[in-house]
């Protein structure tokens, strides 16, 4: 898996810089989840909190990302290095694991919080355990935890459980072991935590993990079930801990937390928008001189004013009492904020007799909505405490209509743009090397033949890499549509990464279209077509994509290999409340396999996105290889959240299993749903508070 940026380093640095309201964050354990030392607790982190931790002791080094998905549900992704795995002093291994914990009961004056959890529920079974745990504050500074565990957590002084636990049969890993959960021996665990000062805490626990495999092979000595630790918190978002483990070892832990709900900077650095120009009393019905020359002058004045604000005007038209404007917002993350800037600019430039502003944002040359705002409402409510809500109530957002009598505005941006930037890619989760690195230069260009017809391409040249340290990928019966990525990186260094022509259309009010032709991605080229049905007021969108591609030569020149495939998917997108967004793609993948991809993301109004996906196809798990099927966690971090400066730039990273051929989908830039959804009613509902910013 490749990452364009250093996710762990970048997010950690952001967390350290975060200035946010103080919150009660629980102690994070050596497993990188809320807990004691190695044992879990029933406490939850604040809603949406992200915890990043690095934990180490003699046997293991664990890196964990934990996300509080909802106030009750948390999920974790962990990458663990096992030293001396077989006990012969030579073999090491690296393992990925996923956890879930759900808080069943909240803590009250008399009742503890109660939670149930699965640890390493879909991995290789090296850390697999299940538990039920209760935690209670005795005072503001002292809390106690007690629970019962199965699997690893049922291995020390355990007693027979409700059913026999079958032998570990995880094979390639990645598949939930439904027949093992909460079965076999079970054992009790517990502990206490004392917050001595706001900066220092002490914790003690009785562990139910006997480290059976490790003690049997002689790689670890387990002398005591009691563990002790001390934690130092220099800030609300950083914790450093040291532990005494099992009477024989010492452990260290570093944890940093952040919350996407709160900015990394205090306030924002958005430029002050133009104020609303209030018309003199009685001038609202003035008749203005509608001549071609006057309209051209108005169009030029508005275009230049908005260009200075990062907004490119496409076209405008006029009637006696209305101005209609189409534009592209290149600056503000929330489209509503750009709508507000356009509206206020129009009050400055338009004749007094024009009262209706029809504002139509565009993406990739296609209009995505049309909002009618009355100028008189802007004048009345700009300084009102209820102004934002009133403007929203009185405005009307509908699907954009045909181009009609719109006239092109003066061009303020170059049709041809290019640049050269440094890049860095991290290849994670290789079987022999947990992290390989590549750095170099990337040159890219874009030529807008028309606003909705774009030719774009890029070339990369590596300056440094250590790909020779990567392990070999096991053979597969599938066409190598993805697993030969290291060969493309090696032989295609300096080749054409992408060179494609894309056309975007808007056949009807609710229907959008795309055609992409050329060298679509690093490994495949051909033609990709897409249709999207997305009514503006609907939470549901439906799409269909059909691709005919051939596999490119390894040198990333103009040639192709002797492999062609017809792939495509039917897709459904649905926006739930609280920012949750579900996606389903069902169809045929690049290796000719059939199946579906299901994803669930939590999206925040400020641009943060955190989610997970899984793809299951008719490829047998053995043919797929390690991990059994494709799955992963994806994170999107908006730049403006970090800097406070308005920007639409963002960094998206996927933490997934090793690149495999099963479930591989064509990597197409700017698929329709992400292009047009900024203008739908749900997005406007969530972000209308930024109208006056």
Mean pLDDT: 88
Beta-strand portion reads: 35-45%
If you compute it from the alpha carbons, what radius of gyration comes out, rounded to the nearest whole angstrom? Answer: 28 Å
- What count of helical segments does DSSP give? 11
Quaternary structure classification: single chain
Structural account:
α3 packs across α4 and α5 packs antiparallel against α6. The chain has 693 residues and is mainly beta. The strands form three sheets. Strands 1-21-22-23-24-25-26-27-28-29-30-31-32-33 form a 14-stranded antiparallel β-sheet. Helix content is 13%, strand content 43%. The protein has eleven helices and 33 strands. The N terminus is likely disordered. It has three domains: 238 residues, Porin; 121 residues, no CATH class; 266 residues, Beta Barrel (Porin).
Which SSEs are present, and which pair or pack?
Layout: E1 2-3, H1 7-17, E2 50-56, E3 60-68, E4 73-82, E5 93-105, E6 113-119, E7 129-137, E8 142-151, E9 186-195, E10 200-206, H2 212-216, E11 226-235, E12 238-245, E13 249-258, H3 292-307, E14 311-318, E15 322-329, H4 335-349, E16 356-363, E17 366-367, E18 370-374, H5 375-381, H6 387-394, E19 396-398, E20 407-408, E21 416-428, E22 435-450, E23 453-465, H7 485-491, E24 496-508, E25 511-519, E26 524-533, E27 540-552, E28 560-575, E29 580-588, E30 594-603, E31 609-617, H8 621-624, E32 630-638, H9 639-643, E33 650-656, H10 672-676, H11 681-687
Parallel strand pairs: 15-16
Antiparallel strand pairs: 1-21, 2-3, 2-13, 3-4, 4-5, 5-6, 6-7, 7-8, 8-9, 9-10, 10-11, 11-12, 12-13, 14-15, 14-20, 16-17, 16-18, 18-19, 21-22, 22-23, 23-24, 24-25, 25-26, 26-27, 27-28, 28-29, 29-30, 30-31, 31-32, 32-33
């Amino acid at each position: 898996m490749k990452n364009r940026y250093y996710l762990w380093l970048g997010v950690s640095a952001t967390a350290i810089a975060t200035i946010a309201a103080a919150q009660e964050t629980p102690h994070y354990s050596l497993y990188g989840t809320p807990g004691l030392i190695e044992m879990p607790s029933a406490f939850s982190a604040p809603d949406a909190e992200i915890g990043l931790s690095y934990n180490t002791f003699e046997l293991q080094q664990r890196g964990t990302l934990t996300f509080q998905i909802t106030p009750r549900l948390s999920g974790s992704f962990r990458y663990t290095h096992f030293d001396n795995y077989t006990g012969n002093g030579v073999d090491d291994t690296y393992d990925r694991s996923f956890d879930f914990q759900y808080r069943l009961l909240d803590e009250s004056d008399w009742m503890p919080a109660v939670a149930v959890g699965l640890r390493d529920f879909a991995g290789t079974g090296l850390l697999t355990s299940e538990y039920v745990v209760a935690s209670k504050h005795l005072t503001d500074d002292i809390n106690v935890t007690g629970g019962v565990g199965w699997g690893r957590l049922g291995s020390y002084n355990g007693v027979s459980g409700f059913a026999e636990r079958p032998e570990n049969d995880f094979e390639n890993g990645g598949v939930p072991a439904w027949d093992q959960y909460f079965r076999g021996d079970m054992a009790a665990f517990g502990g206490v935590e004392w917050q001595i000062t706001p900066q220092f805490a002490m914790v003690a626990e009785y562990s139910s993990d006997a480290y059976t495999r490790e003690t049997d092979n002689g790689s670890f000595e387990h002398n005591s079930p009691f563990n002790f630790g001390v934690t130092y918190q220099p800030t609300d978002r950083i914790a450093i801990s040291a532990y005494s483990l099992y009477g024989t070892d010492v452990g260290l832990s570093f944890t940093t937390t952040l919350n996407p709900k709160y900015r990394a900077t205090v306030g924002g650095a958005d430029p002050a928008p133009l104020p609303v120009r209030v018309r003199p009393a009685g001038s609202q019905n003035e008749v203005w001189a509608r001549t071609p020359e006057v309209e051209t002058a108005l169009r030029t004045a508005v275009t230049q004013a908005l260009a200075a604000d990062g907004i490119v005007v496409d076209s405008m038209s006029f009637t006696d009492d209305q101005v209609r404007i189409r534009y592209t917002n290149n600056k503000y993350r929330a489209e509503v904020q750009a709508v507000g800037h356009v509206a206020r600019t129009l009050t400055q430039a338009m004749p007094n007799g024009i009262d209706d502003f029809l504002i139509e944002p565009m993406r990739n040359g296609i209009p995505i909505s049309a909002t009618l705002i009355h100028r008189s409402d802007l004048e009345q409510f700009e300084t009102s405490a209820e102004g934002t809500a009133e403007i929203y109530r009185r405005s009307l957002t509908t699907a954009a209509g045909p181009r009609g009598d719109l006239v092109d505005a003066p061009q303020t941006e170059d049709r041809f743009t290019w640049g050269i930037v440094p890049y860095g890619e991290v290849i994670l989760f290789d079987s022999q090397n947990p992290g390989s690195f590549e750095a170099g230069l990337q040159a890219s260009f874009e030529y807008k033949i028309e606003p909705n017809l774009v030719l774009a391409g890029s070339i990369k040249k590596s300056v440094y890499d250590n790909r020779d340290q990567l392990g070999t990928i096991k053979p597969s019966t599938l066409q190598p549509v993805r697993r030969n990525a290291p060969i493309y990186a090696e032989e295609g260094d300096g080749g054409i990464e992408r060179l494609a022509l894309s056309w975007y259309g808007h056949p009807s009010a609710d229907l959008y279209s795309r055609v992409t032709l050329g060298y679509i991605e690093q490994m495949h080229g051909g033609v990709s077509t897409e249709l999207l049905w997305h009514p503006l007021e609907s939470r549901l969108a439906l799409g269909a994509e059909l691709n005919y591609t051939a596999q490119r030569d390894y040198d990333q020149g103009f040639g192709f290999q002797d492999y062609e495939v017809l792939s495509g998917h039917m897709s459904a997108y649905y926006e739930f409340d609280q920012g949750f967004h579900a996606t389903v793609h069902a169809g045929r993948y690049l290796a000719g396999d059939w199946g579906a991809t299901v994803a669930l993301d939590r999206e925040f109004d400020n641009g943060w996105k955190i989610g997970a996906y899984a793809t299951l196809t008719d490829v047998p798990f053995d043919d797929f290889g390690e991990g059994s099927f494709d799955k992963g966690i994806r994170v999107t971090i908006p730049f403006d959240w970090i800097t406070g400066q308005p920007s639409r730039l963002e960094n998206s990273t996927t933490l997934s299993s090793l690149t495999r051929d099963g479930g591989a989908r064509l990597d197409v830039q700017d698929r329709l749903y992400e292009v047009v959804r900024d203008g739908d009613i749900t997005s406007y509902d969530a972000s209308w508070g930024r109208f006056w910013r």
